User: What shape does this take?
Amino acid sequence: MGGDPVRATLVQIDVDPAEKAGDRRERAAALVRSHSGADLVVLPELWPVGAFAADDFAAEAEPLDGGPTALAMSAAARDAGVWLHAGSIVERDPDGPLYNTSLLFSPDGELHAAYRKIHRFGFHEGEAALMSAGREIVAPRLPHAVLGLATCYDLRFPEQFRLLVDAGAEILVVPAGWPARRLAHWRLLVQARAVESQCYVLACGTAGTHAGVEQAGHSMAVDPWGEILAEAGPGEQSLTVDLDPARVAATRADFPVLRDRVLGLPTP
Assistant: This one.
């Protein structure tokens, strides 16, 4: 894409179970509006309900069109004039299934893309038991760059990120509700996905404790060489970084590791 810088803001929201979902939507919308100078604003995974609050998933599920989170985030994106990756919601499909679905709004408030999380966490419990799996690689083109969309547990599956690279991704956006006890894995995997993909990674997590699970926070922006440009602490915080989309192509040209991929090896 072009060489104009992209100002990206990660909004690491504290998900407090004592705060009503409607109140948190209003607060999140106000935070988005406060970053009207950004090109792209990113929120965390399942911030309206909490990524580990599985008992509340069904009650808090909402449609993509006309649901309370979609309406609030559409208005916030429009008022701020930003591209808004609104994190993810518990989506209730009209046919019944639940999905962990990320929403991307354009500066005019239109829903530009949606990504249903492919890899569900829980090992036959929680999200893995209650939600259906997405089946599509989603890499929407923005004026600034091509985004590659993934969510939280997807970080542990590098093959998904290879497919995002093949789809043209230059900036990988990963909302998460990552537990504090695996913070070391969070840092390692975010940087690994940047290095192997030669992409920027914007990884935005939640803060606080919900369903008894302390959240890691530590949202990060990482460059195509794996260098951390900015990292939050454990509490509610916003990070703003300037990204140079041209650096992705330059990195791939200077160190053309992606050219040397060997595909189609026989299965043992």
Notes: Residues 183-197 form the longest helix (15 residues).
